[in-house]
Every structure is written in C-alpha cells, then in structure tokens.
Design a protein that fits this description.
The chain has helices spanning 2-26, 30-48, 52-56, 77-91, 167-173; strands spanning 59-67, 73-75, 94-107, 110-121, 130-143, 146-154. By secondary structure, it is α+β, with helices and mostly antiparallel strands.
Length: 176
C-alpha cells in the first residue's frame, strides 16, 4: 500500500513539474533578449553602411547563410563577406535595411530567433528602387563574450512570386 502511495505521489509530482520545466527550457533571460536585439541592430547598421567586413564579423567562422536570392548558400565568414560585397552592396545596393526580431528561444547552448526583414533595393544597371521584405531566422551562439550568427536563413516573403516578387520582378532582377 505504501509503495502505491509513493508511486502515485511521485507520478503527480512529475506531472506537475514537467510542464514547468518544459516552459523554462525555451525561455530567454531578458539580458540575452536585449543582446540579440542589439545584434540585429548592429547587423542593420553594418548593412546600411555597405560594410561587408562589419556584417561578416557578426557571423561565426563556420557560419552558413541561406538566401532566397543571390545564388543561395554561403559557407564560412569569408564567403559570407564576399557575398554581401558582391550581391547586397554591389548588384542590389541595399539600403534602409531593417530586421525585426519577434521570437527568441533558447535551445541548448544556442539561441534561435525569427523575425522579418525589409529593405530598399537599387540595381545600378536596372530599374528604379524597389522595396522588398521577407522572413529571417538566425541560430546564434556565444563567441567569447558576444553573440554571433551561426546560421542565417532569409526568404523573400511567403510567396517569392507574390506581389513584390512578381515574375516580371524576378526576370528584371535576374538580368532578363
């Protein structure tokens, strides 16, 4: 009888403790939350200054950047710096870049953030300025006393062929 009572009480204790533990697992300390928002602000500032070295310095050495445009995937800080120089600051002339972080979750030693981005795009050899936006997701890790981006995924909105990425827009931006 005592064993059943102990097992029942233990079961109840685990049942009540588990949801509390699960909720705490993904929560982020307010100080870390602020640091991630500061990282996003530094990212925007570096992009708006057209400084590929400053942008890539926000990434880890082994970072991966995935984009819906610009030939897709870039591995390592040097490749990411080169991609920003070639595409974002060379071909596209990105300006008024803004990153909005909406969700931050702690997962093990990483922090994952999701949000949106928006920017104006001017192509030197193309049509007038266009506004673009989309979704972004970062996996962020500690590098010394700072947070750095390990994985950066960005899309061009929910539908890359939607109103701001119409087929004519894609054809024009691809040089057609």
């Amino acid at each position: 009888m005592k064993i059943r009572l102990i097992v029942s009480l233990l079961g109840l204790a685990i049942g009540f403790a588990w949801p509390t533990f699960a909720q705490q697992k993904g929560t982020v300390d307010p100080q870390i939350d602020q640091q991630i928002h500061t990282l996003a602000q530094k990212y925007d500032e570096a992009i708006n200054k057209h400084d590929p070295a400053a942008v890539s310095a926000l990434y880890t050495q082994d970072a991966v950047r995935l984009t819906a445009l610009n030939n897709g995937t870039f591995h390592g800080r040097q490749a990411i710096e080169k991609a920003y120089a070639q595409y974002d600051f060379g071909r596209w002339q990105v300006s008024n870049h803004s990153t909005k972080v909406y969700r931050i979750n702690a997962v093990g030693n990483e922090v994952r953030s999701t949000g949106t981005w928006s920017a104006d795009l001017d192509r030197l050899s193309g049509p007038q300025r266009r506004h673009a936006d989309g979704y972004c997701s970062w996996v962020i890790v500690r590098d010394g006393d700072t947070w750095k981006i390990r994985r950066d995924s960005a899309s061009g909105g929910t539908n890359p062929y939607g109103t701001h990425y119409g087929l004519d827009f894609v054809a024009v931006w691809n040089g057609a």
